[in-house]
Amino acid sequence: MRAKRFLPLLILSALALNAFGQDPTTLIMEDDEPEIKVRVRPRETPSPDVTAAPTPNPNDVIVGIVNLHVLTLADLEARTERRYTEIRQDVLERYGGVIGTFGGLESEDVLAEEASDDGLLDEQRVQLEAAMRREKGMELRSWVEHYMLADEARRQGVAVSQGDFQERLAEAERESELETSDVDAALRSLQMTRQDYERSVYDALMIERLLDRFISINYTEAMYQAAYDQQPSLFHLPKRYRIAHFTIVLQADETKRGINVLKKKAEEVQDLMADGANPEEVFAKSEYDNIESGFYGSMPGWFQLNNKTLRPAVAAEIGKMEPGETSKVITQFIRRDGEVVPMSYHVVKLLDIAPAITTFEESKPIIHDHMLEIARRELLERLYETKTHRVVTNLRGIPPTKIPEQEELLRQNAQAEPISLKLPAGSS
Question: What is the pLDDT of residue 115?
Fold first, then answer.
């Protein structure tokens, strides 16, 4: 079993940024081409009466170029926007909760999301800006290395069949537990198209195949054994379970009659799954899918019984079950106002059990994932050293003089040769 199918993008070192330029030339991306091509738009000459350059449009500011791929400041900001609220809250906690003064009195009770950034203390604002710069730097590095590896995979002739791609795409959506409409909504929030998403999945699969090839050339069984012997527990896993899980959360003010109605709904689901109905089809029915009212079904994948997201009563019941069995309606109780009352109802179908992994042979797939990370770092180091990929980056915008011409990029890409994947003797 693969512990993780998508390769996390490790950050190897801080970005080395050059002097920042003003008024960057715009590169235009043409998405309908099989390869993203670039052409230079002529820079407009400002009128003589202009005394200060206007703030450039983020869509016109280029922060990264890798071969024929281009990243604008607007794209980078969209990729890091989802982390802004989390980083902001962390800064407030680290540098004091005071976010303003009211009637001369400092207040720590105002929620962070209720105050504008203008209301932050000077130290908080400085730290927030610095933290977001670091986040953008790491995201830019991640973007650069993704395309370096994906383009090298293409140069190496790595092939991915349509069948393998569709299987990986379906697996990604199953593991995310999202319906297609939910995936599309998430992509819109990130300003990504479905085509962007599918290209990223395809590239991730190509990169994994490239790293597998690198490993087969350079890593031996003895290296796997040495990694295991160094810390065996790192590659061990306890028994894992895969379930279909239906949940009804009761409101604190739920009437006794309402509680009985909801319990009857849980019993309906229990009967359906016990009779062999497909859990996904059951959970998709409107009468059993209303998260706003507190009831919904999920297919959470593989997990351990000490998973903190499971209620104790649910985990205890799963531990007694065999694959294919459906539980009775499980009631999780809570003490409220001195009285023990139902808090939630659950129905679980145990789909499969994966035995514990405790030996070297059993651990090989997990060790392989560990080796993929090592291979990724080593291969990137070689790509940086050989400089066979054209990379230009600058967080505040690449100066116009540093932006390659389209003809130069196309020529370099056409002439680029794959590197040797064989590591020099003694380097591993």
Answer: 54
Q: Which of 334, 354, 374 is the last residue of a domain?
A: 354
Beta bridge partners of 339: 336
Count of domains forming the chain: 2
Closest to 68 (Cα-Cα) out of 123, 11, 150: 150
Q: What confidence category does residue 345 fall into, taking pLDDT thresholds of 50, 70 and 90?
A: very high
In a domain, 271, yes or no: yes
| Tens-digit pLDDT profile for residues 164-192 | 999 988 887 766 655 555 666 666 766 67
Residue 306 sits at φ, ψ, to 5 deg, of -85, 15
In a domain, 161, yes or no: yes
Quote the strand ranges of 15-148, DSSP E: 27-29, 38-40, 62-66, 69-72, 101-102, 105-106
Cα dihedral 116, 122, 125, 126 in deg (nearest 10): 170
Q: What is the pTM of this model?
A: 0.67
CATH number of 417's domain: 1.10.4030.10
Q: Which is it for the CA torsion 140, 143, 145, 148, positive or negative?
A: negative
DSSP string across 326-347 = B---EEEEEEETTEEEEEEEEE
Residue at 298 is within a domain: yes
